[in-house]
Amino acid sequence: MPRPTKRNRVTNKKEEPIFTLLNYKIMGSGAGLIFLGFAIMALERQIDGFLSLFISPILILSGFVLFGYGIMKKEETVAP
Q1: Residue 12: Cβ within 10 Å count
Q2: 15: which residues sit within 8 A by CB, 6+ positions away?
Q3: Cβ(38)–Cβ(60) below 8 Å
């Protein structure tokens, strides 16, 4: 009978979740900024308008950066 490998062993370890509540809040803020940027762009209905040309791209880009930061943020753990 083959010996069980580490992958086949059943452990009672409780796995930590990948994302914490802080990660979800940051990602939600980023998604909100992305939505707000596209909404402002759609509401202005002008191609050469100030909001659709300058403000909306800044909001959308910052939303994507914030969303990426929310994915990459790792919670600091303090050793007991």
Answers
A1: 4
A2: none
A3: yes
